[in-house]
Amino acid sequence: MAAPVQQPPQSSGGKRKGKAQYVQAKRARRCDGGGPRQLEPGLQGILITCNMNERKCVEEAYSLLNEYGDDMYGPEKFTDKDQQPSGSEGEDDDMEAALKKEVGDIKASTEMKLRRFQSVESGANNVVFIRTLGIEPEKLVHHILQDMYKTKKKKTRVILRMLPISGTCKAFLEDMKKYAETFLEPWFKAPNKGTFQIVYKSRNNSHMNREEVIKELAGIVGSLNSENKVDLTNPQYTVVVEIIKAVCCLSVVTDYMLFRKYNLQEVVKSAKDPSQLNPKQPAQAGNGKEAKLESGDKSNQNDPAEGKNNQQVVSENNEELGHTKPRSETKMVSELQTYFIYLGHFISLMERS
């Protein structure tokens, strides 16, 4: 009688992951075309906020961006992914040349698959990030808002704000200062100058301090040209700082107040809209509920320390969704604090010079 086959003993520490599982997890960080699948330093794109329905938000974003992208840059050209660029046939026998050709073919094939607009993981709830390729995000978003402002034609349902992101870096103060010194030059370095304000928002991040970031960035703007002045009412330029986890998104936009803080729902409303003339009407109840969803997302719940850095989040989001209430004392005090931070920093710069 044959002896029973014994099973090999298993370690008591549990099952170990195979090598294939690690490789699969590593590859999952990249999309099919070779581009990043999550927000990271070195990207350009468009940051979009919405109310809960992120999938619908992505669909609306693709539709809107492709419509205006084709208008500004022409239709997107697609290439068959199976088509490989031709190389030099005379060097096939040369091993080194053949290797270089293969690497070039792989790189070219990857570039073929990259799309003009590609959604990536933002790292925060109710926030969508669309990576852009071969376009200028600030010009495209300004073109969209300008057209909607003129025509007053509503084209989206779930998209709230649409902010262009011209550059990203690590969300640490030293990295941000080093990056901003070069990033801000096209707008503020002499002979260029203008009035400005800094708008700060942090999500899922507890190690950055709002006042400290504003102070440092304002100092950089002042050092580029002493004639750059702060204007919190109607600035020529608005420096947008959006921090999500360990990534800082930066951009410099124009007409920020005219286009209602780049809110697609508000920019289409006319000045005679009853919801703006009388914010105490019962019709505002629905918008108030939505404002609570936007400002009270899970990212703030997971990060208690974020409340200190986001003192103006609730008031800004209420204005985005139609709440044009008179200024509260808290908001006025917050604006005065921001103003004195700017003023104190510029006085210290003048004393040094």
TrEMBL record:
Keywords assigned by UniProt, alphabetized: RNA-binding
Signal peptide range: none
Classification via Gene3D superfamilies: THUMP superfamily
SUPFAM superfamilies in alphabetical order: THUMP domain-like
THUMP domain boundaries: 147-254
Basic and acidic residues bias (residue ranges): 320-329
Chain segments carrying region Disordered: 1-39, 73-95, 270-329
InterPro entries (alphabetical): THUMP_dom, THUMPD1-like
UniProt xrefs under CDD domains: THUMP_THUMPD1_like
Protein name per Swiss-Prot or TrEMBL: THUMP domain-containing protein
UniProt organism field: Felis catus
Name of the gene: THUMPD1
